[in-house]
Amino acid sequence: MSGSGAALQAPTSDGAGTLAPMVTKFLRRPLKSDRRAPAPPRPAPPVRRPRSYYLVAGVALDQELERLRALPVFADGPLATRRPALKVRRARKRPNRLGFAVPAEFRLSVTAYPGIRPGDIQETLIHELVHLHVGRAAEPHAWHGRTFKRALAAAMREAHGIAIHPPSSTRHGAYADAIERARV
């Protein structure tokens, strides 16, 4: 075993096969500390969708999203400078989950279903935008706690002139009913 590469030579088995390829592969692999962290995923380019994709219960959600982003309640957060990705899911019946937000990916999704009212989709859209604005608060009930409820109440007041006592639960409907009453 002379030469500079002798220490890196892999042992071979007794004729039943060779271990050299497996050992060599192991020896060539860099140590975990030498590996670079993987690059963060690039955001997908915005998808161009037909206008009808965003139309739910007579509300053009893409236009409503832009109007809501300009509200003073969102002025000091990420919504003021970036437009979140919006996906409209379509369901055959009323789902349990009317929408969701993913703050880490800056995207939100709302669900259209048969019989949905304009107030329902507007409440859901504002609710999810508030999640993107507030994120996970460092308080009890991190997603729907005091900070979230205060921001939601302010957004409803600024967007629709709705000033109701914030509901104690986070169940959908209290703001939607008030929006529907205000429309009449």
Features:
single chain, 184 residues, alpha+beta, Zincin-like, three-stranded mixed sheet, two-stranded antiparallel ribbon, 5 strands, 33% helix
CATH topology: Zincin-like
**Class by alpha and beta content:** alpha+beta
Poorly predicted regions = none
The radius of gyration is 27 Å
Task: Give me the count of strands.
Answer: 5
* CATH homologous group name: Metalloproteases ("zincins"), catalytic domain
- Major sheet size, sense and barrel closure: 3 strands, mixed
Task: Please provide the ordered H/E string of secondary-structure elements.
Answer: HEEHEEEHHH
Rounded mean pLDDT score: 81
Helix count, DSSP H or I runs of 4 or more residues:
5
Strand order of the largest sheet: 3-5-4
CATH class: Alpha Beta
Total tally of structural domains: 1
Beta-strand proportion: 5-15%
**Overall shape:** elongated
Fraction of residues in helix: 25-40%
